[in-house]
Structure formats: structure tokens, C-alpha cells
């Protein structure tokens, strides 16, 4: 039985990563799910959060927002709307995005699209969390 599984993460713009890994944990729309080699096939929509994988015993983190994950016994294909490896995340940019979103939330204007502001805030928070998780495990 194979001990690794291929993980591929792509966005409409680029290939984010392709690696042979030992485990994948991903933020499904209905909660996190985990995949080991030889998993039964399934398809899940993705929420906003940290995807992580284990390679050579180390955990690596990737921020993902929206899209789908397709799982087969040999491969996990993540088609994300947006994705960044932890080391690519610009923390300052995420902080600025968080401030903008919080400022908009405080404005009591009817024309504000609250779902959009909530999603922007969630992206900013999870980008920061993804970087912190990676940094705290020595992955950056
Ligand atoms: P911002 O308001 O800073 O643009 P956003 O959440 O609206 O943030 P997205 O629409 O999620 O941005 O992403 C647009 C593009 O910018 C994507 O290619 C994404 O990977 C990249 N991106 C956004 N924020 C960051 C960040 N903090 N670090 C690295 N890349 C980022």
C-alpha cells in the first residue's frame, strides 16, 4: 500500500504546489476533513481556512478560500479560488485588510454588503492564523 499521496493545489492563476505527502487536513465547508493515502474517493467544497499537509513528518500550511477538493486513493486535487503557501502570506497586507473590514463593519450604512465584509475579514484572520501556525512549528 502506498505510504504517500499526491497533493496538488491550484488556483485559476497558478499552480500553488504539487507534493508527495503523508497526510492532508483541509477546511471543508462542513468542517475539517483529513485524508491518508488510499482514501475512498469524495468531493468537498472548501471554506476559508488553513489546509495543512505532513511531509517527512513535518507539517506545512497553506491558506485556502473557496473552491473544491477532489480526493482519490492516490491524489488530492485542490481547486481553490485563492490559495497561498504560508511563506507567501504578506502579514502586513492581511492586517490592513482586517482593519478595512472592521472599519466597514462599524459603518452603519445600508449599502454595505455585510456578507462580503465578513468574508474579507475571515480571509484576513485566517491568513494571519496560517502564518502563525507555520511559524510556531518552524515551517517558515
Ligand atoms: P486584499 O484586500 O489585501 O486584496 P483580499 O482578501 O481581498 O485581500 P483576495 O481576493 O483573497 O484578497 O486575493 C487576491 C489576490 O491577492 C490573490 O492572488 C491572493 O493570493 C493575493 N493575496 C491577498 N492577500 C494576500 C496576502 N496577505 N498575502 C499574499 N497574497 C495575498
Question: Explain this structure to me?
Answer:
By secondary structure, the chain is of the alpha+beta class. The protein has two domains: 5-87, F0F1 ATP synthase delta/epsilon subunit, N-terminal (ATP Synthase, domain 1); 89-136, Single alpha-helices involved in coiled-coils or other helix-helix interfaces. It has helices at 91-106, 114-136; strands spanning 5-10, 15-21, 23-28, 31-35, 42-45, 48-55, 58-71, 75-85. Strands 1, 2, 3, 4, 5, 6, 7 and 8 form an eight-stranded mixed beta sheet that branches. The protein is globular and about 60 Å long. The model has no long low-confidence stretch (mean pLDDT 95). Bound molecules: adenosine-5'-triphosphate (ATP). The site of adenosine-5'-triphosphate (ATP) has 12 residues, from strand 8, helix 1 and helix 2.
Task: Jot down its keywords.
140 residues, 2 helices, 8 strands, alpha+beta, Single alpha-helices involved in coiled-coils or other helix-helix interfaces, eight-stranded mixed sheet, 2 domains, binds adenosine-5'-triphosphate
Report, as a whole number of angstroms, the end-to-end distance: 32 Å
What small molecules does this complex bind? adenosine-5'-triphosphate
User: What fraction of the residues are assigned to beta strands by DSSP?
Assistant: 35-45%
**Rounded mean pLDDT score:** 95
Gyration radius over CA: 16 Å
Low-confidence stretches: none
Q: Mind telling me which CATH architecture of the largest domain this is?
A: Sandwich
Give a short synopsis of this structure.
It contains two helices and eight strands; from the N terminus they run ββββββββαα.
Amino acid at each position: 500500500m502506498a505510504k504517500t499521496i499526491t497533493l496538488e493545489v491550484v488556483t485559476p492563476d497558478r499552480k500553488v504546489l504539487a507534493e508527495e505527502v503523508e497526510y492532508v487536513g483541509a477546511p471543508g465547508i462542513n468542517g475539517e476533513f483529513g485524508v491518508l493515502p488510499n482514501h475512498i474517493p469524495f468531493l468537498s467544497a472548501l471554506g476559508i481556512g488553513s489546509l495543512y499537509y505532513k511531509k517527512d513528518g513535518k507539517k506545512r500550511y497553506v491558506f485556502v478560500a473557496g473552491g473544491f477538493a477532489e480526493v482519490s486513493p492516490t491524489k488530492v486535487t485542490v481547486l481553490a479560488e485563492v490559495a497561498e503557501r504560508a511563506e507567501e502570506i504578506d502579514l502586513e497586507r492581511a492586517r490592513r485588510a482586517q482593519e478595512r473590514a472592521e472599519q466597514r463593519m462599524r459603518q452603519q450604512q445600508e449599502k454595505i454588503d455585510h456578507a462580503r465584509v465578513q468574508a474579507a475579514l475571515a480571509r484576513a484572520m485566517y491568513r494571519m492564523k496560517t502564518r502563525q501556525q507555520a511559524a510556531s512549528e518552524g515551517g517558515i
